[in-house]
Amino acid sequence: MSQKICKTRSWEKIGMLVVLCACWQAYGQTSTRYPKMAAIDQYMMERNAEITLARSAAPESISRDADVFVLGPHGYENAVKGKNGFACAVLRSWTAGPENTDFWNPKLRGPICFNAPAARSYWPLMSERTEWVLQGMSKEQLFEKIKSSFDKKGLPTLAPGSMSYMMSRDQYLGDAGGRWHPHLMFFVPETSDTSWGGGLPNSPVLVAQDPDDHLTVFMIPVDKWSDGKAEHSDNSSAGDSHKN
Fold it and tell me: How far apart are CA 129 and CA 75, in angstroms?
């Protein structure tokens, strides 16, 4: 994927994730098969499998001591208590932007591990968004609720130094490409693309603007999956998303 393509596809057309994640921008434009939320059980995973998938977002040296959250019928539940301040989870499709045509895709899985500042200040937003969805909110109601909560200062202020790992080879970020490059994401209050040199020629820094969550997300692809294997040594990598 070229930096130009990644830059010109705005966050609202996808952001993990992250939130879901900003990297989902690349996959949100080819499917119109998900006009509404599917049955809740289609978004669920077997508990131990979800723990394993969540931990695969970061190297084992990080994720083994992290809190791990799994999706339950009413929201995310703390399945494993950690001790290093990190929080790992598997994000679902509704953490994308409102214009993402995969917004309700029950197949999407975004393993992510937040560092301690992001676990305190950004993860609660993703978790609360999930609770609102599982309460039955429509997409329109969800984003109105997010806007209202920010206006009333009812959501945590983003902590300095917030970032996350998305290095799982088993991520599924959309029907058009499956998984993207292993990468790191850095969350900052809204700022210009170029404040980190993002999107400039030959810069390794990619950018997604997230106006709904009042964030700019800077993404830096890395060359290895969380298990230490080189990305391009895996011939099953997601097709065109790996062609630069």
Answer: 9
What pTM value is reported for the model?
0.84
> Could you check whether the bond before residue 205 is cis, i.e. omega within 30 degrees of 0?
no
The half-sphere exposure of 215 on its side-chain side, counting CA atoms within 13 A, is 33
Per-residue pLDDT tens for 58-86? Answer: 999 999 999 999 999 999 999 999 999 99
Q: Write the DSSP symbol of residue 21.
A: B
Task: Give the rounded distance of the alpha carbon of 15 from its chain centre.
Answer: 5
Phi first, then psi: give them for residue 165, nearest 5 degrees. Answer: -105, 135
Structure tokens at 159: 């902590």
Gap between the Cα atoms of 212 and 231, Å rounded: 32
Rounded to 5°, the CA angle 238-108-105 comes to: 120
